[in-house]
TrEMBL record:
Signal peptide extent: none
Organism of this sequence: Microbacterium aoyamense
Family annotation (Pfam families): rhaM (PF05336)
InterPro entries xref list: Dimeric_a/b-barrel (IPR011008), Rham/fucose_mutarotase (IPR008000)
Protein name: L-rhamnose mutarotase
Length: 118
């Protein structure tokens, strides 16, 4: 039996005066960093930016703790996060390790699946 996919959503705050540069730094992300994200087991990864620099991230993984550990030990991710850290406000430590997780309260697929079982 396979473990269910974990959906992870998080929030960070980009300093508004650095938002244009932050967006530019993601167009494109370093190829070696993209490879590390994939190797960690994260997939379907997206970042969304809102008014005032509010950043919402989302990804799916089979084991978030393992993905976090992989990236925490990655020299490539450490270099990337060291460069990205200056863009964020109210953050202690590496952005990929210190973001605020959000709690999922609704998922259409899960509820549709459950309703067909009833």
């Amino acid at each position: 039996m396979t473990s269910p996919t974990q959906r992870v959503c998080f929030q960070l705050q980009v300093a508004p005066e650095l938002l244009d540069e932050y967006i530019a730094r993601h167009s494109p992300v370093w190829p070696e960093m993209l490879a590390e994200i994939a190797a960690s087991g994260r997939r379907n990864y997206s970042l969304f930016v809102g008014e005032g620099g509010r950043l919402i991230g989302y990804y799916e993984t089979d084991d978030d703790a393992a993905a976090q550990a992989y990236l925490a030990a990655s020299p490539v991710a450490a270099r990337w996060e060291a460069e990205m850290g200056r863009f964020f406000t109210g953050l202690e430590g590496r952005p990929d390790q210190a973001s605020t997780p959000l709690t999922e309260i609704f998922n259409l697929h899960d509820q549709l699946t459950e309703s067909t079982r009833s």
